[in-house]
Design goal:
By secondary structure, the protein is mainly alpha-helical. It has one domain. Helix content is about 50%, strand content about 0%. Helix 1 crosses helix 2 and helix 1 packs antiparallel against helix 3. The protein starts with 5 loop residues before the first helix and ends in a 12-residue tail after the last helix.
Length: about 60
């Protein structure tokens, strides 16, 4: 399932980084923290790899 906005894609990227241990989970805020706790690494990869060019900056 691809991300629906640039903000969602960025949050998924941050959550994926924490899930892999590249950043601390304590540094996450808001949506990225929730995504890290509730989604698998594979799901986060699908969201994070979505191309930003065709996405709106925020989901309406």
């Amino acid at each position: 399932m691809p991300a629906k906005s640039q903000a969602q894609q960025k949050a998924a990227g941050a959550a994926l980084s924490a899930k892999r241990g590249e950043t601390k989970k304590s540094e996450l805020k808001g949506a990225s923290r929730e995504m890290c706790e509730s989604m698998s690494e594979k799901q986060l990869e699908e969201f994070a790899e979505t191309k930003r060019k065709s996405l709106p900056s925020k989901k309406s």
